[in-house]
What does this fold into?
Amino acid sequence: MEKLRATSNLRRSLKSLLNRRLSSGSDFTHFNQKRSFQTSFNWIRDYKSVGEVNAVQYRYFSSVSTLVQRNPSFSTLNSDDISYFKGLLGEKNVIQDEDRLETVNTDWMHKYKGSSKLLLQPRSTEEVSQILRYCNSRCLAVVPQAGNTGLVGGSVPVFDEVIVNVGSMNNIISFDKVSGILVCEAGCILENLISFLDNQGFVMPLDLGAKGSCQIGGNVSTNAGGLRLVRYGSLHGNVLGLEAVLANGDVLDMLGTLRKDNTGYDLKHLFIGSEGSLGIVTKVSILTPPKLSSVNLAFLACKDYSSCQKLLVEAKRKLGEILSAIEFLDDQAMVLVLHHLDGVRNPLPTSMHNFYVLIETIGSDDSFDREKLEAFLLSSMEGGLISDGVLAQDINQLSSFWRIREGVPEALMKAGAVYKYDLSLPVEKMYNLVNDMRVRLGNLAKVVGYGHLGDGNLHLNISAPQYDDAILEQIEPYVYEWTYKHRGSISAEHGLGLMKANKIYYSKTPETVQIMASIKTLLDPNGILNPYKVLPHSINP
Amino acid sequence: MKIMVAVKRVVDYAVKIRVKPDKSGVETQNVKMSMNPFCEIALEEALRIKEAGLAKEVVAVSMGLANCVDTLRTSLAMGADRGIHVEAARELIPLTVAKILKKLVEVENPGLLILGKQAIDDDCNQTGQMIAGLLGWPQGTFASKVVLDKEKQVVTVDREVDGGLETLCLDLPAVITTDLRLNQPRYATLPNIMKAKSKPIKKYTPEELNVEIKSDLEVVQVTEPPKRKAGVILSSVDELIDKLRNEAHVI
It folds into this structure.
């Protein structure tokens, strides 16, 4: 009895850690609804630092209403449409029930809400193709949807678009144990793929907080980043092929399983990260690396940002082949985590430090990896780059260190209102933005910086007791302009969706956006696929 | 006073255990190994007693294959003063471990011997009791609180028993086995990992200690618990009633 109790306690505490890791990993945003609309559609009025051409564009934008208008060229659903879909998919997969529609109309942060009257659940590529062919002929707008865990309002309707959810297409088609190539349908939940591969001795090349709900089709369509990016690279490298259905119902079979294939334009890349605006991804083939048994994690303290940077450079040089993640958080983030999350303990309790860095290694030989990591850490400590640190001795400690980094978004949510920005910036300048914002905001709000140091991806978060226009005016467009000035990206990994569709010019030139618009027109002439998202609203195909 | 702590290297408890295809045991190749969590708690308690000025030295002992030294290094990085590794090529049953510990106690003369109440791999929960029996020392098992009185040479131990706590007072020297709620073990900091590198680990073989390694037990087989079958979604109450009546035979 006693034994049972004790071991189940151990398991429970581990499980709760894991669960928390699941539920808190991604960097969710939480504005109230009213605020989100204002921030999303508040055009950049005084955007002075862009060139003349952009300014023209923006003047054009500012004439657009502050709220997005439904595109009048889209039809509305009628009873013939419903009977067509019922004939095609069967009663069960044509959903008009209001409760079920409520869930798929709302994003998981409850920040965006559409008013779709119809959810379709196709079970095969053929059915997706038929749906789109029909919608295209009727000019019915469509929102492709997978796990609906996006952070920028890309996976929910804006108005009455038909929701095509690929969740029922969840079969693993094949797995090649020699090459590690997995072929599966778009609706496979990431975590299911992870555990399927685990049994085969392989891992998914991506891992993110939402893995329990997000689906691979959505991951590919949004080019999801996550924790393993520094090691395995982005999905542009790991997705070997995919099958997508175009707006007119044509099926593009690009489901190759070859690592090398230089025959013409590599069109699959258009569907990776285009957020469902060019086609619906129905199948993917992914290159998966073998699972390595040795995982080590150090939780370190640095006295300033320049030490963090030097540590990054050194880690890449000295841990190169085993380095799997290098993440950072500042003291403000640490204070929030310790204050707002239950059961989190400061690994370095003797004093507070300005910066905390997590370095994870994954390799095949535990004693070798450990020795290497220890030697690196000790020399960095002697060199003054690290002021203090701890090294996880078991998986439980490893999870609890990760919990601190991954718990930052959750702690921010608990702290009150939060303005969130997901930016790619040159590593050496990344933290200057946090300092600048602190000066700008003074006592108005707390500015928190954390993120993927190894990828140059800063999560800039501004935490205040409540949402306040005075604060927002200090942040936007300053943050976007700052990012533009340093040739960064206003969306490192979350995508543009609805939230940032009109902000694309901060990171892409008008010429580039024009080409994107031409591609959109070519593949989706009626613009029925995921309208109002990704591309600026001034561009109507 | 000297405190001796036994630490065991086990499959990390967060690892999903796999049974070997021939059912002879669990897979340990390429699997993350860590210090048994109960041993970590035992070590932490010893370190706290030492830090309170009630003990002079903490000695960590591990037995088994050569890589038990990793576990001893972890102990030293947490703060143990030195390590003892009794190298054995095969798995040791609790009675053998207790016999070896007895020999080491005779060499080291500790005033207190602290062990985890059980190892999470074999779940035996026997070693502490056996060594207390072999030594003729009093034992406080499943300790959730330990208070040492140096002057009176006694230790008060709160034990977690089903339905409550039992408080015992033991004369030193004594054996204590630790439960989960006794303390929260510390992390190994980099400066301590550095210091640990120069701390000594002494090696013994069972022969040197005059202990014969034999086993009266034979593991017949190790099997996985039955897998839970996937559930089914039924479309109507009638179908449910039918299943309950004709398949499950419960109504």
Summary: The CA atoms of residues 81 and 134 of chain A lie 9 Å apart. Chain A has three domains: 79-165, 172-287, 294-486.
